[in-house]
Each structure stands twice: as C-alpha cells, then as structure tokens.
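ligand=thiamine diphosphate
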Amino acid sequence: MTNKIYKVKAMTGGTAAAEFLRQAEPDVMAVYPITPQTPIVETFAKMKANGKVLTEIIQVESEHSAMSAAIGASAGGVRSVTATSSQGLALMHEMLYIASGLRLPVFMYVSARALSAPINIHGEHGDVMGSRDAGWIQIFSENAQEVYDNSFIAMKLSERVKIPAMVIMDGFHTSHTVERMNVQDDKTTKKFLGDYKPEKSLFDFKDPTSFGFLALQNSYFDFKIEQAEAFKEALAEYKKITSEFKITFGKSYDYFEKYKLEGAEYAIVIAGSASGTAKEAVDKLRSQGKKVGLLKIKLFRPFPYDNLAQALKSMKGIAVLDRAISLGAYPPIYSDVVNALRSADCGLPVSSYIYGLGGSDILQDEIENVFEDLIKWKFSKEIKYLK
Amino acid sequence: MNQELTKKLAPGHTTCAGCGIPVIVRTILGATKDPVIVSNATGCLEVTTTIYPYTAWKIPYIHSAFENAAATISGVEAAQKALLKKAKLKKSAKGGSAFGGKAKLVVFGGDGGTYDIGLQSLSGALERGHEFLYVCYDNGGYMNTGGQRSGGTPLGANTETEPAGLDSFGKSRNRKDLMEIVKSHGIKYLAQANVAYPNDLAMKAKKALETKGPSFLLVLQPCTNLWKFPTSRYVRLGRLATETNFWPLYEIEKGNYVINYVNKNPKKVEEFLKEQGRFKHLFEEKNKKVIKEIQKSVNGNWKKLVEMSGSK
Ligand SMILES: Cc1ncc(C[n+]2csc(CCOP(=O)(O)OP(=O)(O)O)c2C)c(N)n1
C-alpha cells in the first residue's frame, strides 16, 4: 500500500540528507567538515545532540580517515555513512577503491563542488567525476526531494549488491537552497530500509573473516571481474528497488528522467540542479511548437547504456551538457552518451557543451540557444563552453 | 608449533627466516583471553599473512591501507559501541560465539606506517580516545618495499633512499622521538619494548590491553634482511640494542616514566652497530665521527630518560 502519511516541509538538500539519515539512523557516521557539505553533518550532529538518533559519530581528523573509519565500521557489520565535497572526496580517493574492493556498502553524500586550483567552493561535478571509476554506485539528484528519495534507493541498492554508494547533490544550488518537499513518516521509511544484515563481520568470532587480502597476478583480475559483475546486478536491482519504492511511496523513478522526450526530435542530456532550468527551456520552446525534450541523468554508475540509447535513438540530434571538464578529452557524460549510442549502432550527431564550472551560472536562454543550435543543425566536434 | 602460541596467528605465514614480527604479534595477542580484532597497516606483516586465498589469521582481521590502520580501528570501535548499544554484543568478555563479547582492538603497523604516513591518523585516533592498542613494530625502515629510509631509521644507517656513498654517511638525521609524540596525546599507557625481551613485552602488552582508552607499544624488530646480519644473531642483536642503551625498555604510565632494564655498565653503541651491514660504512675512517655522534645521542637520550623516571 502506498504511504499517504507524509509531511510537506521546507528543506535544503543538506537538511533533506540529514532528515534521511535521521530516519535511516546509521550505526556509525564519520564526519569532517568541508563546504558545501557542512549543513548535512551539522544538522545531523544536532539531531544526535538532541537524542534523536543513537548513531555513533566519529569526529575524524581528515576525509581520508573518514572513509577509513567508515570502512572499519562497515567491516564491523554495521550501517556506516559519511559525507564530503571536492577536496575531501579527492583526499578519500584511495579509500574509495578500498571500500568498493572490500565490497562494503558504505553510504556517502557528496555535495558536489569544484576542485582546486584555483580554490573554489561552488557547485560543479568535477569532484564526483574523478571518482567514477572507483567502483561506487553514483546517483545524481536534481533537488532536495531527489536527494531524499535517491537516498532510500541508494542505500537499499548498495546493501543488496555490496557496492558502496554516493548520492550526489549540487553544492549550494541544491545543498543550500530551500525547497518544498515531502518527508515520509519514520515507520514506513524504517520498514522500507529494513535492518542491515551483513554477510561477513569483524564481530563474528566463531567464523573469523580476514578483510583486505593481498591478491597476486593469479587472482586480482578475478576480484575485479567479480566487481564488474556486481555492477551488472546493480543495474537490474536498481529497477526492482525503484518498483519497491513506487509501491511504498507512490513515486516512480527510472534510471533517468525523460522530460518531454515523447515526440521530440532534439534532446539535451544533463544531470543535477541545472535540469530544472533546462526543463523550463524545454517548456518554452515546446510552447513555440519546437520538438525538444530532455533526458536527466540520475543513475550514473552503473551507467544504463542500453536504456539510454533506446530513449534517445529516435532523436535527430543531441547535445550533452556536462558540469565537469575532462582536460584533454571530451567530458564524462558526453563520452558515456556517445558510447551508449554507438553500442546501439546509432550514429546520431551529438554535441558537447560544458557549463557551470566553479559555480558559474547557467541561464535559461543559454540552454534555449543550445536547442536552437541543434535545430539549425549546428553540430561540431569542438567542445563548446556555456559561460 | 606450540598450539597456544598459534591460536591467533597460524604458522602458515611467509615472513623471512629470522623475522621477529610473528613473535611480536603472538606475544602481544597472547596477553589477553578476550576476543581480539586486528587492524593492520600495509607492510611486511600484512603481505606475509594474507596472500589470497590463504590467511594466517584465525581471528577477525582487517587490512585497508598503509596510512590509516588507526582510523580503520576507530570505525571498528564505533561499530562495537553501536553493537553494544543495540545489545547484540553481550557485555561479558567471554567470547566464543558470534557477537560473543566486547573485543580487544589491536593495530599493528610498521615504523613507516606509524612515524611517517600514518602519524596523522594515529594522532587523530589517540586524541579521540578510542579504546585500542596501537603496536608499532619498528624495524627502522620501509622493509616491505626493500629497505628505504623512514622517520624511524636511525642516524647513519645505509638505506636504499638515503644510501652511504662518497658524499654521504647514510641517514643524515636522528629518528623522531615517537614515544614523546604519542605521550603528548595524554594517553594513559605507552611503553617501549624489544622483541628480544618477550617477557617484558608480554607484561607491557597485558597492561596496554587492560588500559581504558588508547594505549601504545613501540617494539624493536631487528630485520635480518635489511639490517644485514645473520639470522642466528637475531636475539643477540636485539639484546645489544638494549644493552647499549640504544633502545631502552621503559613505560610511561599516567605520565610516570619507569625504566624496565637498567644497565650498570652499558656497552658502547659500536657493539650494536658493528654487527650490522647497514652501519658497516661508519667504521671507515671518514665516518667514525658519526659513531661518536650516535653515542652522544644515545647518552643524551638515556640521561633524559633517567631524569624523567626520577631514578639515578
Ligand atoms: C599510500 C601508499 N604509499 C606507499 C605504499 C607502498 N608501501 C607499501 S608497504 C611500504 C613499506 C612499509 O614500511 P613499514 O611501515 O616500515 O612496514 P614494514 O614494511 O617495515 O613492515 C610502502 C612504502 C603504499 N602501499 N601506500
């Protein structure tokens, strides 16, 4: 039965994340401050200080230690979480691979932000894109509501397939912006998440486990293949979990959101908070009779190549808008979209645009211009900058 | 092998002949009857005990990376607290069954993983006051990677990254005073020990494991391979380190220093140095001043220690 006891609240992405954590009540949370992640950990710390959660909070001395402690706790068989941004995620980089390699379902929020140098604290996807090969589930959120909803899906998925997961929100644009959203009731959310039942735990003294082997040339490769297989499983499980989510909470989520793609000839692919602005551009052009639509990336790792190609292949042309730069190469989402189309034998023209680096604004008319370029068949191999 | 000794770390490991690391581990873990969980930094102990698909560990064990063994155990300790809170763990320390009781949490790291790259995560964990024992087995260098210098390498030692040569007498600086660094975190118990004195080590391990909050042991581990001496001289060499006052045995309990081994007539540090290939070059005429320098620093450190302990 679909849950009807939700409350409408005004929340930022950061407080929505903390609200999810209050309901999930992880056993351990490792915290270290960095803007624009701080609202998450600060809000949660207040919840703990007021006795609303039992969670053990570890005030680590760095993000490297945050992820290390989260790994230690997860190996201890309990639900463990952390949150970071930018430099913090970069500092954790080594440990991201160890969390995933040990098959520990650590859960993390990333309030995505630009990387130094030059230092910049504002929203961008450069940090999370740097982690895209680290063996983590990555889910982008457009707004506070999605931060909250994606968290349920990510945590459940992560525990089911034993892959750590990060729920991504755009620094400031989402983490600090107040929005109206629905918060589900505690009982239903707890029931949806269930208890975490680890396969292995350091606290099993009867059947002790060694975590963190040295794997030589004869076995390392197999470990990686096993992880790759788990990612395939994650793609299938994501579907199942979103159906469970729909049954419980009455909301449909897919691998990505299709916005007015039906009957569209030209589409933009985009992720994160700028999708809202892009949807308005679509609405405006649609009202002028132009056949445009949008595909919003949600599940980014594993990347849903087949489904995405199916959704886009009937277009005439596509533009991919990345909020990250991959120096010396095409940007990440563009590359994945082109790969998806290529592997579906679809040779559509695809243009690459980069926007919003270091928190720079993207305006609706800039997105409208991208559509106009598509309609005028102005494709180019050159990456274009919207700034 | 002795069944009792190998209850926690089995003989099926691949450390070099004459390596004392397993003795250190067994002596320390043998000092408690409680269940134990081990967190291990990357290094010799780790690579020689966990070659997939085998493990020499008969107790729960985690290796995550090189510089974070203390941070990893922080997470394990928090998990233990959470589990205790949820009453999944019985509070009794009997052990035996899954979640059978509160476990002792022990970290093993080499000197590289402790003096250098892991110092920050160790400092953080000590400051936060997690209940765990950190053991640094100090073989005076990055041995797993072939004998490079660390912040724990003694003055004058020949290492792969600070080698002796025409223009160099090897390590140009004294090692860090790790005991003082750790002490300054205000922890209740820390001690310096030596694998060549296993009874002393066991006594210290017991105290450390019974300490509320963090405790620390710095244990000398002569490395036959990279200190370059015959395996048959292993215990002898360890003893010489202490008999020359190069490696005094002492404890700092609630801030009070206790020396555990007092030499009436300490041997000259040369006796310790001359047995090892890594100091061979110091006996060349041009480097003899370095031996003097080492002796001076040994004497100075001993004097300080005696003053701190209030003995004469
Ligand atoms: C971040 C990182 N840097 C470097 C290494 C390479 N490395 C692995 S073990 C090791 C040496 C360890 O030295 P020590 O801590 O003294 O332990 P020992 O080898 O002597 O047991 C080094 C340098 C690594 N694994 N990780």
